Amino acid sequence: MRDILKAMSKTSGGFAVSSLFGIASSKIMAVILGPAGVGLYSMLTQVSQTSGLLGTLAGGPALVQGIASREKASRDKYVHATFLIFFISGLTTALALVIMAPLIAPAVLGSSDPAIVWLVRFLSLPVALNVFAVYFGSILNGHRAIGKMAAIQIAVAGTNAAIAYPVSLAAEGGYLLAFVELMIVTSSLSLVLNLHVAVRSGWTKSIAFSLPKSIDKESGRRFLSLAGATLATGLLSSFVLLIVRLFIIQDGGLDEAGIFNVVWSLSMTYVGVVLVSFGTYYLPTLSRTKDQGEKLSLIRDYLRISIIIIVPIIVFIATAKQFVISLLFSGEFLEATHTTRWMLVGDYMRVTGWVLAMPMIAYADVRAFVALECSSSVGFLATSLGTMGSLHSIEGVGFSYLVVNSLYVVFALIYLIRRHRFQADFRLKLSWFGGLGIIAIVSAFCWNDNVVFWPKCVISVAASFLFVIVVLDDKERTWLWSFIRSTLRRITRQ
User: Which long-range contacts (CB under 8 A, 24 or more apart) does 284-293 make?
Assistant: First the structure.
């Protein structure tokens, strides 16, 4: 558990700092552009992310898994083969985006104006850059270069925050290409930094002269097998979110889309504190672990630690959501609190569900992964459209998110028990049900609050930390206090 906490302190710490920069960027855009401007930017981002999935074949996790589970010559062949695959798919996707822009613009952005069409065409540049940034970043991930990855993440997010103000002013003045230029700058920086670290570490020697060489068929087949699964599920998930956004725009306009973007961004930000470490430590470590006892111990430890971290965060946001949204965005977005209250409980399910489902990727169990992810995405789309259609409110999306992620946990747990003979001990059961109980009780007490009641917030957060202390054993408590003290000493010395 100590190794997990140390690794998570780096990944979560790096993500936390970069999230602060991201919050600053979102705050600037929200204040200057308002809900409509944020809604437009979110749609451009959605197009870029969906194209990026195609460009990388959603192969980041497959590349990490392949590097982590291979040694020496076999690893070199795998890196070489995957580089050629990324190269071809990335350039093909960028070219397709340029050609299909006249179809994408009216379908997604609701306009056939030549300026909007060219805006979509220019998205091909950050998409192509990001494909290679993901590739070299995944190489760092596969080698567990956690500290360097965190530093790069902070540098990119800091740059994004630094130029968010002039970009927002330009966009407010009608120069919408500034949104794309922002993406180009951050994608370029990410690519350069990841490539620099990978080359200096000697992890790219096998691709130095890769173009003249043929692809190792076995490596290519293995990569495409898992990448095909993550691509199919990733595209489905992305398209589902895109359809939900389009439905929201049709029903409530860009203003409503901006409100939804706040809800979704807030959820992805704090959940990412835990989820981001899945790829940087949990996935490669689990992929390397062959011993049955060690594997199950790692899963149990990671599940407990995820619960311990996420519960106080969710409790704070549940009791102070109006303050958080006003601070991170602006008072224009307070309508988002109605959807957020459902999302908070759903996020607890999302985090624990992903811990339980990660062995599917780590051990390349493609069928189980595809079945779970596809059913989850289809279920989310169906319930979201149904509830929004009846309620005429994005609050229905929050309810759907909670229901689908709850079912996700159930099916992931069934898989883990049947396939890996997973069993939860008493302390793990206490942690999970205790965390769920605290979140449910606090959410219920604060459900209809229109303002923040700070005494209630302080008491609730204190109770969540008491819960954390209770679920830790004596050795874990002693080590945690020692770790906190040593960290604080290092910070004060600097």
Answer: 284/64, 284/65, 284/67, 284/68, 284/141, 284/142, 284/144, 285/68, 285/144, 286/358, 286/359, 286/362, 286/363, 287/64, 287/65, 287/68, 287/69, 287/362, 287/363, 288/68, 288/69, 292/420, 292/421
Give the separation between CA 397 and CA 494, rounded to whole angstroms.
Answer: 45
Write out pLDDT tens, residues 160-201: 889 999 999 998 888 888 989 999 999 999 999 999 998 888
Q: Which are the contacts of 25, defined by CB distance < 8 A and separation ≥ 6?
A: 157, 160, 161, 164
| Largest pairwise CA distance in the chain | 67
Sign, CA torsion 252/257/258/261:
positive
The H or E element containing residue 296 is helix 292-328
> How far apart are the C-alpha atoms of 123 and 309, rounded to whole Å?
36
- Alpha carbons 120 and 117: distance in angstroms, whole number: 5
* Cα gap 36→172, rounded to integer Å: 11
pLDDT tens digits for range 112-133: 888 888 888 999 999 999 999 9
Helix axes 2-56 and 177-200, enclosed angle (nearest 10): 120
- The alpha-carbon radius of gyration of the chain (Å, integer) is 22
Backbone angles phi, psi at 450, to 5 degrees: -95, -20
Cβ atoms within 10 Å of 478's Cβ, excluding its own: 11
Contact between 307 and 432 (Cβ < 8 Å): yes
Q: Tell me which residue has tokens 């070199």.
A: 76
Rounded distance, CA 196 to CA 463, Å? Answer: 46
Q: Concatenate the DSSP letters of all residues of 450-478 into one string.
A: SS--HHHHHHHHHHHHHHHHHHS-HHHHH
Q: Where does the pLDDT of residue 15 fall: very low under 50, low under 70, confident under 90, or very high at 90 and above?
A: low
pLDDT at 12 over 70: no
